[in-house]
């Protein structure tokens, strides 16, 4: 809602360059300039006053519809806007710099002191190899350290926390579920891959001595500016349609007319509506395009596919630019997306050069008629039902994947007490099996406050007496003791030593 309000702002109030720069800072920076933060507070205060009043919302923002939301969801949306508007004052309410550093420490762990080297490795060995070579080392390292991706002004001007990046999560505190506000967004890939690695103007992708001439920030600013220029000129006639007199309305007898506003409506649906859309007949075969992000692939089901009209298209974002995934995991993710799309009634599109970033499908008429009727009449199946039969039959149950643990001779403990953490792992996206060999058995290290008894020490120090079936019995030879040898004193037993 905030982004649409910014994109549809009147040109008299905000110019094209200022609009694109404000969008980049709000969308990709963890810290804002005071001017941008003031704009966010003003827009959030306006939206907070309009959300509870549907009539005023329809008058001032005709492109926005919240009629499908429940009252508690509207109240939650109003509370979010109140927080953005500064209802809770003070930098300690949302300390973005400290939250970013804390999340980065948790993500890197012991590699935090070498975070500069880690960022260079992720950039050159992963993002550059996957096609994002225009991302410069300096801008990527700055984003990893501070969360500021687009530094359009002096670096000292960015010090106001970006409250639009805040999110809530239920955490466990002393055995109770407590709601906490923090930042749980992306800290690994960065916002450069969205608008900054491709461009229609080939001159922006030109290289010199093997290095890109433009950075990802400059390409992003160019693409966003062109996008906002297209939005600002929505519905206006261009020079390619008609004469200049007809375009500018300067012909004789032709009155001036204002540029028509964009004729579209953005409908916000309730949370979790992806599993319940097929229950309403008004959504059956209604949509022509379905876009699924890589983090929402699990929602792609036959029920959701029934809402797409015959001949409609499906675009699924692949996990190409997720730096934490290896190449075999990316291939498994792509295969899993194809299986879910075919189960939902879609057919892959024939492309000369298949894209590694998006998977494109279409819905044919025959498959739509068969699958949409079955999807509307049935309920949402469990996640296990979406796995194809070949995968279910080929993957044995977890009990069959764990080998029987045997306690080697001389080890302390029984077989049922021996635990091997991480002995196997089966990923849901691809039937991968990883076996880890257990470590060699050894005596457990002594923990503070734990002492071995005399019997345990004697058993650990002295060898065991061989059994009768292990071989011939040993012969004990006794030598006569000299008279000059002193006898060892004998002490009476003092009870059970164990």
From TrEMBL:
Q: InterPro entries, per this entry?
A: DNAAF3 (IPR039304), DNAAF3_C (IPR028235)
Q: Which domain of life is it from?
A: Eukaryota
Domain Dynein assembly factor 3 C-terminal, by residue range, is: 64-349
Tell me the Pfam families matching this sequence: DUF4471
Biased composition, class Pro residues, residue ranges: 395-407
Q: Entry's PANTHER family?
A: DYNEIN ASSEMBLY FACTOR 3, AXONEMAL (PTHR22118), DYNEIN AXONEMAL ASSEMBLY FACTOR 3 (PTHR22118:SF14)
Q: What is this protein called?
A: Dynein assembly factor 3 C-terminal domain-containing protein
Query: What organism is listed for this UniProt entry?
Result: Felis catus (Cat)
């Amino acid at each position: 809602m905030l982004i649409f309000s910014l994109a549809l702002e009147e040109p008299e109030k905000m110019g094209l360059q200022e609009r694109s720069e404000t969008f980049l800072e709000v969308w990709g920076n963890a810290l804002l300039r005071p001017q941008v933060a003031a704009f966010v507070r003003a827009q959030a205060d306006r939206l907070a006053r309009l959300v509870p009043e549907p009539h005023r919302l329809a008058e001032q923002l005709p492109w926005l519809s919240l009629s499908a939301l429940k009252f508690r969801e509207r109240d939650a949306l109003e509370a979010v806007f109140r927080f953005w508007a500064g209802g809770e004052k003070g930098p300690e309410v949302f300390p973005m710099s400290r939250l970013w550093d804390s999340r980065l420490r948790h993500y890197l762990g012991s590699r935090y002191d070498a975070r500069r080297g880690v960022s260079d490795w992720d950039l050159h060995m992963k993002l550059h190899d996957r096609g994002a070579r225009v991302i410069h080392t300096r801008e990527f390292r700055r984003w990893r350290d501070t969360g500021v991706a687009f530094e359009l002004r002096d670096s000292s001007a960015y010090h106001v926390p970006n409250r639009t990046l805040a999110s809530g999560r239920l955490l466990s505190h002393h055995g109770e579920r407590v709601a906490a506000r923090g930042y749980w967004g992306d800290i690994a890939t960065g916002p450069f891959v969205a608008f900054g690695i491709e461009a229609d103007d080939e001159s922006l992708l030109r290289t010199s001595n093997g290095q890109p001439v433009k950075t990802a920030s400059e390409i992003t600013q160019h693409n966003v500016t062109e996008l906002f220029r297209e939005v600002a000129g929505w519905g206006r006639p261009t020079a390619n349609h008609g004469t200049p007199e007809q375009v500018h309305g300067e012909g004789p007898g032709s009155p001036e007319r204002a540029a028509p506003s964009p004729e579209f409506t953005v409908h916000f649906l309730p949370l979790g509506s992806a599993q319940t859309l097929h229950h309403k007949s008004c959504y059956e075969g209604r949509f022509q395009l379905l876009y699924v992000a890589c983090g929402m692939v699990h929602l792609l089901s036959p029920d959701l596919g029934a809402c797409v009209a015959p001949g409609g298209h499906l675009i699924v974002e692949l996990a190409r630019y997720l730096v934490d995934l290896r190449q075999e995991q990316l291939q498994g993710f792509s295969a899993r997306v194809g299986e879910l799309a075919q189960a939902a009634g879609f057919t892959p599109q024939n492309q000369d050069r298949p894209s590694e970033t998006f998977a494109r499908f279409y819905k044919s008429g025959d498959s739509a008629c068969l699958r949409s009727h079955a999807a509307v009449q049935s309920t949402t199946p469990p996640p296990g039902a979406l796995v194809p039969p070949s995968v279910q039959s080929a993957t044995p149950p977890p009990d069959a994947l764990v080998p029987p643990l045997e306690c080697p001779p001389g080890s302390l403990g029984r077989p049922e007490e021996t635990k091997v953490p991480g002995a196997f792992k089966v990923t849901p996206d691809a039937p991968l099996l990883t076996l880890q060999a257990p470590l060699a058995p050894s005596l457990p290290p002594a923990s503070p406050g734990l002492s071995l008894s005399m019997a345990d020490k004697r058993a650990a120090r002295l060898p065991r007496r061989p059994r009768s079936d292990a071989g011939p019995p040993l012969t004990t030879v006794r030598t006569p003791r000299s008279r000059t040898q002193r006898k060892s004193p004998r002490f009476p037993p003092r009870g059970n030593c164990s």
